[in-house]
Amino acid sequence: MMDTVIQLLIIFLIIGGIFFTFVAAMGVVRLPDVYARAHTASQTDTLGAGFAVAAVVLAMGPEPRTAVAVLLLAFIFVTNPTAAHAIARAAYATGVPPWGESTEDDTE
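Now predict its structure.
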């Protein structure tokens, strides 16, 4: 019974990972500017990779190698949003204009 529950949870996590990775890919293709693309890519890609690695952790079970996968999961959750923030900040610093219909930061 417990194996069936774990297998169903693994399947749910894999489907969630596929869904969020697909949403990230569609967001990068469809969104209008670098700021929106960085936002969607960081959030949904982090969730997609996080769900996939969580499925791997459950599939491996209690092994020493599982700790490496958990560390990878923590690394993904820290680095993906940080990289997206750095990209958006660099775009803003170099003067990349936001999409025409968005509101701009008028503090200058």
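The chain has one domain: 2-93.
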